[in-house]
């Protein structure tokens, strides 16, 4: 039984009574099974209960209706008669993908009024494009079939549509006006569509439209005056030149002259760009004061005179930047203060700068505020942090400086930024979505980093401030936990509002972070990875999203694509893994601390996802197929 079903069973208490409704659903299913031959046996046996024992069936919580029917890849052949599946009046999810279904798609199926997800890809349906749909549809996937006809304008009525995949069919005609704000995934590729692409769909990449030789307009090539009148008999040279389509001939029509012109233009632009970069570098170098760390630090302190910082450092102490063993850096405090700096962020514990030293080294300098402990204790804590930092998934502390007026920490610089910026920054077109493998890896890296923090230091160490902006990434997208172990140095435990979205419920009362509250915060971080919803809005907004509560409410209601990040929708073959990850996340955000797994267990559970999955994939592809939409 798939994890997905287990997940549902967690939430759906299955009552025994079956009302008349379920009887009619059962009859509809049996009629379907009788009419459509299937290579693998469905154990749809009259004598066992439909809701708990029939393959591919999910019922609603009170067991009165079938709400999901998932039979992907089980060798269904032939065509589906009307009045079978179409009679499942409460159906929300139908997946018959990757079968050998042919012929007509009965019109009563897409128009089931409660239907939200319809997955029919990878069959060979050859009917004309259906005209009437459930107004609640979120996902319509008819790709890789032989559908003909035109895209009906009724699609415009589907205001909840998120995914519309029609690629690899024989759909013709023009694309109707479609203004669907919730639409996130669209693919019309490899059909026979003509005319211009409506303005409202320009936001999709050209790969959503390729393989339609008579289609034009942004993001494909512009429509010429003649081609927009879409007369198929006009000379082919008027037709657009969809960049990635092979049958374009106009590529060869570029004259030698225009090629040279393009080349010259291109190198001119490149040259200009280089000049601009060069000038900017020069400016940065001789900007003297403006960007220098010393000034930044001095200027940022409230009520401090600009010179306070420099004078606060005694002459004798000037080189007392303490480096940890094995650190390859060789600069002193003076070098560091002279480095050009930019503010990376103002966090819970102070301001963070990126400092670029003269010899090209880049480091992160964290300037702590409100340090409560004395020198001795500070140094002891630094020793612990040095030990805790010696793990590939923890950002290591390289050096520190302590004086009465200044406390600075020096870390390695991670150029790829934080998980927060990767997940939530620049989600507009053109960005590379964070794929599922990368997210799995970041989740595991982060879990390992936190588990290391928890075991190192005699099981007493906590992180206390786990959030996506504290997970930094290398260029290879390895996740590293930062901001480790600073909580114990501070006067106030933590500015509570700063961690609001990640804060375990018990921390609100006790104001104490524990390892189990770290687990909770990590669970929220997992939910963030899965849903791409930020538990904390970027600074300036007070709004806090209670992500665990939101996810529970969606999942309790039903399991659909709705809970997952739309950027993950294209990785449908991994939905099993996503659901397993969701389960782990929900276990971590259990309200009572004792119910949460510890970090080591969490690491093992995440590791198991991939292992169990690769076993499934190799041993019984079809078996694992069954439960995925
Ligand atoms: C249905 O299940 C019962 C008990 O599991 C079994 O005895 C019977 O043969 C099954 N009927 C069919 C048609 O498979
Ligand atoms: C079962 O639950 C559905 C909603 O999920 C509701 O519409 C229906 O009335 C319920 N039926 C019974 C018999 O409680
Ligand atoms: C799909 O069906 C059409 C006829 O409707 C047939 O010509 C074609 O070969 C079929 N394709 C596949 C892959 O079975
Ligand atoms: C759907 O769209 C068609 C035409 O585009 C319109 O006639 C019809 O009233 C719409 N239906 C709903 C339910 O909005
Ligand atoms: C594509 O459309 C053109 C004109 O609209 C038509 O002549 C042609 O037969 C169509 N091709 C296919 C494969 O449907
Ligand atoms: C659309 O489908 C085509 C053909 O399967 C594929 O090459 C293309 O990458 C897809 N585009 C998007 C945006 O998914």
From TrEMBL:
Q: Where is the composition biased (Basic and acidic residues)?
A: 608-620
One protein family per Pfam = LRRNT_2
As given in the record, the signal peptide range reads 1-20
GO MF entries: ATP binding; protein kinase activity
SUPFAM superfamilies, A to Z: L domain-like, Protein kinase-like (PK-like)
Q: Where does ATP bind?
A: 375
Q: Where does it primarily localize?
A: membrane
Task: Give an example GO cellular component term for this record.
Answer: membrane
Subcellular locations according to the entry: Membrane
| Annotated ranges, domain Protein kinase | 338-609
Segments passing through the bilayer? 254-279
Return the annotated region ranges for Disordered: 608-629
Keywords noted in UniProt: ATP-binding, Leucine-rich repeat, Membrane, Nucleotide-binding, Phosphoprotein, Repeat, Signal, Transmembrane, Transmembrane helix
PANTHER family membership = OS05G0588300 PROTEIN, RECEPTOR-LIKE KINASE
User: Could you identify this protein by its name?
Assistant: Protein kinase domain-containing protein
Write down the species.
Corchorus capsularis
């Amino acid at each position: 039984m798939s994890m997905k079903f287990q997940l549902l069973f967690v939430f759906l208490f299955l009552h025994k009574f079956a009302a008349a409704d379920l009887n009619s659903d059962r009859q509809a299913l049996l009629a379907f099974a009788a009419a459509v031959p299937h290579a693998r046996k469905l154990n749809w046996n009259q004598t066992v209960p439909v809701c708990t024992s029939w393959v591919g069936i999910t019922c609603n919580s009170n067991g009165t209706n079938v709400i999901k029917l998932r039979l992907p890849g089980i060798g269904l052949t032939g065509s589906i008669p009307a009045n079978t599946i179409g009679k499942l009046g409460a159906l929300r999810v139908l997946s018959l993908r990757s079968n050998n279904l042919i012929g007509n798609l009965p019109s009563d199926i897409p128009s089931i009024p409660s239907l939200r997800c319809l997955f029919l890809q990878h069959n060979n349906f050859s009917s004309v494009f259906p005209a009437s749909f459930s107004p609640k549809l979120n996902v319509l996937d008819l790709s890789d079939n032989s559908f003909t006809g035109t895209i009906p304008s009724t699609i415009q009525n589907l205001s909840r549509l998120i995914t519309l995949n029609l690629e690899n069919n024989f759909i013709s005609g023009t694309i109707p006006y479609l203004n669907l704000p919730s639409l996130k995934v669209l693919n019309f590729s490899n059909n026979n569509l003509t005319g211009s692409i409506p303005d409202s769909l320009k936001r999709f990449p050209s790969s959503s439209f390729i393989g339609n030789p008579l289609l034009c307009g942004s993001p494909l090539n512009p429509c010429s005056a003649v081609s927009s009148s879409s007369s198929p008999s006009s000379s082919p040279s008027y037709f657009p030149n969809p960049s990635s389509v092979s049958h374009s001939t106009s590529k060869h029509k570029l004259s030698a002259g225009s090629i040279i012109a393009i080349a010259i233009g291109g190198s001119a632009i490149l040259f200009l760009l280089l000049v601009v970069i060069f000038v900017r570098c020069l400016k940065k170098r001789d900007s003297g004061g403006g960007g220098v760390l010393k000034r930044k630090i001095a200027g940022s302190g409230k009520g401090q005179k600009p010179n306070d910082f420099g004078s606060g450092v005694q002459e004798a102490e000037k080189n007392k930047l303490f480096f940890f063993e094995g650190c390859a850096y060789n600069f002193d405090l003076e070098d560091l203060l002279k480095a050009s700096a930019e503010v990376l962020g103002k966090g819970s514990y102070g301001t963070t700068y990126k400092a670029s030293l003269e010899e090209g080294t880049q480091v992160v300098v964290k300037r702590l505020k409100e340090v409560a402990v004395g020198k001795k204790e500070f140094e002891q804590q630094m020793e612990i942090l040095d030990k805790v930092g010696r793990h590939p998934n923890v950002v290591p502390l390289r050096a520190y400086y302590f004086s009465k007026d200044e406390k600075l920490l020096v870390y390695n610089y991670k150029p790829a930024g934080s998980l927060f910026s990767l997940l939530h920054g620049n989600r507009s077109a053109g960005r590379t979505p964070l794929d599922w493998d990368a997210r799995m890896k970041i989740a595991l890296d982060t879990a390992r980093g936190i588990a290391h923090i928890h075991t190192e230091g005699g099981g007493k160490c906590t992180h206390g401030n786990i959030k996506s902006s504290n997970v930094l990434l290398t260029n290879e997208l390895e996740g590293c936990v930062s901001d480790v172990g600073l909580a114990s140095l501070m006067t106030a435990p933590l500015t509570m509002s700063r961690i609001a979205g990640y804060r375990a419920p018990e921390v609100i009362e006790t104001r104490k972070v524990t390892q189990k509250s770290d687990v909770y915060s990590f669970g929220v971080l997992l939910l963030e990875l899965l849903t791409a919803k930020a538990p904390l809005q970027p600074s300036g907004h007070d709004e806090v999203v209670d992500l665990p509560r939101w996810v529970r409410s969606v999942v309790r209601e039903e399991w659909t694509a709705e809970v997952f990040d739309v950027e993950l929708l294209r990785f449908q073959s991994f939905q099993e893994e996503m659901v397993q990850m969701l389960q782990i996340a929900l276990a971590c955000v259990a309200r009572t601390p004792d119910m949460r797994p510890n970090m080591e267990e969490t690491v093992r559970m995440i590791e198991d996802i991939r292992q169990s999955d690769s076993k499934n994939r190799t041993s019984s592809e079809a078996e694992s197929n069954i439960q995925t939409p």
